[in-house]
Amino acid sequence: MGLGDKIQNKSEEVVGKAKEATGKATNDGSLQAEGVKEQAAANAKQAGEKAKDAFKDATDDK
């Protein structure tokens, strides 16, 4: 996983957390849900990148 991808995914996760917190604080269910959705998307991207890295590491060792 490239450093740029890691930074982008982490920033998407942080933005999602901020939206979720703002939605909770303002009692805005749609903003809160949007934040949760963005966090889930960022986490899925991170998991996919980690799987790619693991596969690459496993094939490089051979």
Automatic annotation (TrEMBL):
Which spans does this entry mark as compositional bias, Basic and acidic residues? Answer: 7-22, 47-62
Q: So which domain of life are we looking at?
A: Bacteria
Q: What InterPro entries does this protein map onto?
A: CsbD, YjbJ_sf
Could you tell me which residues belong to the region Disordered? 1-62
Q: Where's the CsbD-like domain?
A: 5-57
Classification via Gene3D superfamilies: YjbJ
Pfam families, per database record: CsbD
Entry's family note:
Belongs to the UPF0337 (CsbD) family.
**What protein name does the entry list?**
Uncharacterized protein YjbJ (UPF0337 family)
The species is Glutamicibacter protophormiae
